[in-house]
Amino acid sequence: MQSLEDARPLSATPWLDAAWRAAAYCAHPRVIGWSLAPLLLAALGSVVLMWFAWEPMVAAVRAFIDHWRLAEVLLNWLDAHRAEQWRSVIANGLLLALMLPVVMAVALLLVAALMTPAMAKLVAQRRFPELERRHGGSFWGGLLGSLGATLLALALTVLSLPLWLIPGVVLLLPPLIWGWLSYRVFSYDVLAEHASRAEREALLRRHRVPLLLIGVVCGYLGAAPSLLFAFGALGLILAPLLLPLALFLYMLVFAFTALWFTHYALAALQQLRSAKPMPLTRLET
């Protein structure tokens, strides 16, 4: 039986080769271990949110809906059909729509801050042991850039909500926003230690399209946890219990995303320095 070091990639395409390697590294014991700290933080935050804040937030949203003229027709229709209990379901749904982008942002920031540097170091040690470290970025630079890009992505998400009512837009716009965010955050973090600033800027110019494509694909993968709430009223009512699970799934998606960016970007950096095609005949992990 072949070991991981001797296995051959499924494709000679650098983009797909990096994806295969990222999937393999997700099962690495160190990666699983590194996921425990952000997972515990996320679980603790979810418990605090459910215990202390969820009901007050639902009540606040319901009060807003009761005084929102645009919703008056729907609410009157519910009252006329003796379905007043659906007011709480609608409030849960609206609150969930506002919370999910925040949950995604928290998951992305936790992975970027607590997991990505360690995973990039692991990939470099096992696959690129001779790659020189030129320290073109810093932890704080990456954190500040991640926060700024995340706030911008959240603002774009909120501002674009009315457009989601147009058929098909909801399948296109959110993955593009979160794909761009993943590109901005992870492209910096995975190159911060090994690439100089000039090298990082050159790589982002040269490989902007495939890096953005990685982000967009992972943006679509990030939509999968939202399916937990696609069970009608029951999913909305159980939202406080499902949010921690959704947060865990988001973290898995972003961990895979970080590894995908790492494998692709470090291979591209090695190619830039050697001015030779990327070695893709063997999986050198």
Question: How would you sum up this structure, described in words?
Answer:
This protein is mainly alpha-helical and 285 residues long. The chain has one domain (14-274). The chain is 73% helix and 0% strand. It is built from twelve helices and no strands. It has helices spanning 14-25, 29-34, 36-66, 69-80, 86-114, 116-127, 139-159, 173-191, 197-206, 208-221, 232-237, 239-274. Helix 3 runs antiparallel to helix 5 (86-114) and helix 5 runs antiparallel to helix 7. The longest helix is centred in the last third of the chain and has 36 residues, at 239-274. The chain is elongated and about 65 Å long.
Task: Tag the structure with descriptive keywords.
285 residues, mainly alpha, 12 helices, elongated, disordered N terminus, disordered C terminus
